[in-house]
Amino acid sequence: MRWSRLGAVLAAVIPAVALAQSPPAPGSRFVVVLDAAHGGDDAGAKLLGPDGSAELEKDYTLALSVRLRSLLAARGISVVTTRESDVTLDAQRRAEIANHAGAQACLSLHAAMSGSGVHLFISSLSPAQHATFVPWKTAQAAWTPRSIALAGMLNSALAHSGLKVTIGRTALTMIDSMTCPAVAVEVAPEQAAGSSGPSGGIGDSAYQAQVAEAIAAGLLEWRATTPAEGQNP
Ligand SMILES: [Zn+2]
Q1: Taking all residues of the chain, what is their mean pLDDT, rounded to a whole number?
Q2: Per the CB 3.0–4.6 Å rule, which of 74, 128, 157, 201 could disulfide with 141?
């Protein structure tokens, strides 16, 4: 039985499990999922805007998603977003959107007032063999090696742009259910690599543009190195 048919049958009878994703056909398009974290009832963290005014994380992540989407679209990359407005979305719905997209990269966008530079997070799930179907909450386990590779590429692009970057592993519900190379990108206030000076504002538009450009450059690099045969680990 072909994967897709098997998938349809299993998805119909076992809604509690996520199916391992079929590889895309050779030459299929390169798709990036942008997940603007938080939204609606979930405001996320309180941030400081460029003029010291308060800004909510949910608004910041949506603005970053919109900015990144246009940068990627201008480079011929197909983008699927989890939200385009201030709506409440739970982690499961976000993962459903991402998994349905058959993406080669899934980025969950966050912002924080603590720390500096850009924090990249990969799922803390241990790598697992691809199974016919896998428990929804640990679906990312099979993808962690690819997610680590994606984070490495984003790290290079951000560092190349002069931004400070840290990489960590953590349990993130929306990413742990994703069946794609997935990285959470958390933007913290600016601080040049190696600098001990005061941090610049997170809402500074030049800083936002620099972060978005660097992420786009990293994804272009990722596209160049992702085999056409697909994104399966
Ligand atoms: Zn967040």
Answers
A1: 82
A2: 128
